[in-house]
Amino acid sequence: MIEYAWLIPLIPVAASLIILFGAKEDPHSPLPWIGIGAIAVCLALSAAILWGFVSGGVALPYEKNWDWFSLATTIGGQSFVWTVPVGVLIDPPAAVLLFVVSLVSLMVQVYSISYMHDDTRFKRFFAFVSFFTAAMLGLVVSSNILVGFMCWELMGLTSYLLIGFWFERPGPCEAQKKAFMTTKLGDSGLYLALLLLYAKTGTFQLTQLHQHFALGLVAPAAATVAAFGILLGAMGKSAQAPLMVWLPDAMEGPTPGSALIHAATMVAAGILVVSKLYFVFLAAPLAMETAAWLGLITAFMAAAMALVSHDIKRVLAFSTVSQLGFMMCALGCGGFTAGLFHLTTHAFFKALLFLGAGSVIHAVHTNDMRQMGGLSRRMLLTFATMTVAVLAISGIWPFAGFYSKDMILVAAWNHEKAIFWPLLFTALMTAFYMTRLLTLTFLGDDRDHERFHHAHESPALITVPLLVLAFFSLTAGMAIAHDGLAARLFPKPALTAAAPAVAAAPATTATPPAVGAAPAANTSEVQTPEAEQELPDWLKFGIPAFFVPGAMLLAFFMYRGPKFEAAESIRNTFAPITTLLDRRWYLDDAFLALVAFCDQVAALAFWIDANIVDRVFVDGWGLLMRILAEISNFFDGAFVDATVDGVGGLSNDLGVGLRSLVADGQVQEYMMYAAIAFSLAATLILTR
Amino acid sequence: MQNLSLLSPALALSGLAVLALLADMLVPPSRARNLYHFGWASAAGTLAWLVAGLADPASRGAGSLWVVDAYAQFFGMTILLALVLCLLMGLDYKALPERHAGTFTALMLLASSGLMILVSATDLLLIFVALELVSLSSFVLVGFERGNPKSNEGAMKYFLFGAFSSAIMVYGISLYYGAAGTTHLIRGAAAPGPMLMLGLILILLGFGFKASLAPMHFWVPDAYEGAPTPVTTFLSVAPKIATFALLVRVFVSVLPAAQFDLQALVVLMALTTMTIGNFTAFFQNDAKRLLAYSSIAQAGYLLIGLAAGTGRGVEAVMMYSFVYLAMNVGAFAVVQAVGQEAGSYDLSSFDGLAQRSLGLALAMTFCLLSLAGIPPLAGFMGKLYIFSSAVETGHWWLAAAGLVNSVASAYFYFRIAHRMFFRAPREGAAPVVAGPYIYGAVAVAVVGVLLFGVHPEPLIAGVRASAGLP
User: Fold this and answer.
1) What is the pLDDT at residue A219?
2) How remote is the C-alpha of A140 from its chain's centroid?
3) Is the N-terminal amide bond of B228 cis, ω within 30° of 0?
4) A599 within domain boundaries
5) Closest residue in chain B to residue A74, using alpha carbons only
6) Domain residues for A308?
């Protein structure tokens, strides 16, 4: 099966083109089923690869490359022409992510058949989703980080289209611009980092890059700069502070699209790229430390914003940012396995949460949780699946989130206690605001009777995906944590492992390494046993048994009633803080100020161009020319003409005089010839 | 006058230009359109001749004031390709007077002939003469729509500025002569000194006028806006590319910029050119002006390759020039089609283009995305080459500034794309029906943009084979 892995990103691309150009827009168009079929094929392929690896039938990593184009480079004063190949590299994390991405995308598409059926651009939505998925799958399988970057950019482009899907409204228009420009700003960091890596190593191949780092051929300074560039890219795509401003606004898109962006594709890409280039971070401890703190700060800031938001999708968006912070923090703490594990489980329950929220919004036609309440009595299936997701994200045993979050906390504990405690607090905040969401939406009394009355359970096309995702939210953690599978699926790369293809390392030989011939660095096979400490017992059992349930119960009791006075009074007591959170830490304002500043610069440039340059320079040049012309004209009139007239007069006189001397003849003519000869001679002499 | 025959494609082109002028007097106005066909056919013929001669080593060599090497041939082909595409666009440009078809064709051919000589020139005198040939032809071409006041204004500004920069350049050449004792670039063993430095700077400024580099870019928006669109396209592509060829020949190969401490100046010019181009484009509401500023910014990117000054830098300039040709011609061709239909080049004429003419809208989007450097289009590959050459030589901040600039540029390129796809068309706006020649030019450009993005190897191989400078 794995030989066909290169088809995985191409199938959805083909599907999206067929959907886009296949037929006219029609609400009953059968074309979306092509996209669903395509992604189902991808899912089958990925499942086969993953199962093959887990059961031991398939050896990973698997790499296959094809020549693409060549690029000249100079290393150590010598020039080479390198072939840049395009290819697939499937390592165990990639196999897992292929499965996750295609599964979530499949569920989202099935769900959207029902959710989007009234939309005037029904078909186009599926084309975008297919393309979006394809870009993500391309990033996952690519063996060449440059190709990965291209997919990354395409994902940015498609997110622009998805977020601004309802472009008739002003909100989505602004949001799509914001998302695109913010992530693009981060992208430039990643791009620079890749160029630097290329300048230092002469390759974009992940395995070869890994070899270079394993052999210590890259200077620590360069590794640090590259790592920070990569981090900047991840900050943009994975919405880390302070570039997280775009993600809450990205809610303006259709809910299934948000589910895709938030669960498995766009935001996961940042974490994924950091994990793919993790060896760069291993060589740059400073960047690792920064990633850890950045993740922590993001997790906390976003969780705090989620505490006060009333918009159900917005709470979920903040929670995504916060969970991404957890992953980034785990990666920064050296918990590679934990970070990717959480990425996997998070994909399931976050997709479920968004699709569930979509189901609710579909039923009550509002995003405001204050107008919901008691919906469990009307939408039992949605409620049940959402509950699973909330328990999973809060970290209740035995749901998926428990295992992955626990692993993250252990990684933080082992790395730095100063990170562990705030992170634990943030985890409790997560449990709190997710329970708050569940309580406000589904429990308690119906606050808006009108909406409550009209609410009803969604059709099967919506609930079946919810059930499937709930199944995975329940079991994925257990399955992966079982029997050390997590360490096998997400083996932490190491820099110390012996690299087999030393002779092919470009800095030592003049021949470029045969592309694809060098086996995968295999460094990731060896799991270096680290002195992993367990949490102390009181934390190990206390967190899932007391702390988290405590936070959840607190939220339940605070928000259970119809008016939740306790919560409101706390809100009013700490008004400055809640305002700060409502205004999203003023980050948006800061960025708006930055944009306004750029606008000013641009306006200034325009003004200079239009007024100073055009008026003064061009027109002034014309004026100068005119003045010069006037002067020259005056000179001409006053001196030259007078001289010419004088000469004319003189010759006239002379002529008359001469004529009197010579009776007839053409003396003027002779004189003229002489004058010409003289002028010529004079010119010749003077200019010699 | 040794080896004059090396320049025969360029000379043949001027001969054909004279022929077109003569024919203008003889051909009746009703048949004048044939002269446009004559124009592109002779350009295509010359191109075919040049391509056919590539295999022949006798087609390369050095003359007294010129050298024809693979590098010059590469740029010669690029210029001729641009000429063919622009003359094709001219066939569908309705505002051109039929009566003067011969003059128009002749001027375009003459300008290209001058450009072809320019990329081969190794003597400042020949460079100056060739540049003047190009300039004088283009002054007239910009003002070719005599009934259009904007065209006249553009031509006037272009002319005044051209005269100014010629003067500067001649002064620079005279200083060079004073320092080196000759105007020949290769034979002159010039000793670095203040006089030579001043001369080189002035010469660089003179070149900057043609390549629209800051601070010599001021004429660009007005001239581009006023000129007939095919001429705008031609001016935005051919002279710019040829001047870059010359800049690289002079400042990388003959008189290495690093040796003369000119690199800081080049870096500074690259920075200002990019930034001014991109940031001023934010507020443009006229498609031609917007693309004018965009082309200034693109020249800034090209200058990064020159600042790098290495082999890869040279390759980057060549590769990006070629890619730039495709994407800019494509964008301008669509602008011409849309502008003609709407009667104005205001950005609002692009509203809802996707619903009116999906093909043109897609083509425009591809070209704009490529200009912004979005993968997997050719512009991405070109920028990759440019930026990696800068990083390779340690020009970190230049690469970073280039990247930030391309982020900013995405903003205004997307303004057009947004209008085409996300705005409803104006009341009664008809589908844009462009002529067959426009579609031809657009198709060639878009195929180039897509092909060299996905499969750049043929272009890279061609560039590498031609990059060797004397």
Assistant:
1) 86
2) 14
3) no
4) no
5) B392
6) 2-552
